[in-house]
Write a structure and sequence with these properties.
By secondary structure, the chain is mainly α. It is built from 10 helices and no strands.
Length: 246
Amino acid sequence: MDETALHGGGSGMLARYQHYLGEFVYGGIDGSVTTFAVVAGAAGAGLGSDVVLILGFANLLADGFAMSVGAYLSSKSEQENYAKPRRIEIREVEDIPETERQEIRDIYRAKGFEGQLLEQVVDVITADKERWVDTMMTEELGMMHEQRSPMAMGAVTYASFVTIGLIPLLVFVYDYAVGVWPAPLFASSAALTTIGFVLIGYLKSAVTETSRMRGILETLLLGALAAGVAYGVGDLLERLVSGGAA
């Protein structure tokens, strides 16, 4: 196989996956934060590994599915909301082309184009119906076409939620299935989750094009706050229940 074609194909595949990096990042953030919050709440309540695993995996699979469905429906709705006005624009371009052509002229005159240059721009845009309609959708209606697959967006969100969200549970899985974990479970889970937060924070900064350190610190702070609240609630409830039982 031609080396250029090989690299070109690899670059195209990478670029295609990069379109879904945002869904991966936000799915991973939600998965890691919510699952670690469950672990922290269980630790605050003094629950065993078996209970942590039940609560953790129930949250991981159910919340991940709910989030992926939300991503799918949101993307699908955007595409459907785009399709109806686009059909109207196509019909108007076909039925009243001079009026639509004048609208293109008005749009680009407002952008500063004048005289022969303006007419050349109008001619180029209106020479192709798809380009003409796309321009009307963007410039007149302010609508952009979401080209990413809703199904793929949902799948990436779910995969990220489950994969990154599994990290806080790994030590509990080992402790329950293999043997006694050689270090405090909650502290070990927190350490592993911190690594996950750093990774997701780094990727988040790539998506938002902000400082790497800022992205990492924001994600760590979000996780710490969620865990702190969950741990405090778990500890409070355990004290209330224990006090009531006594």
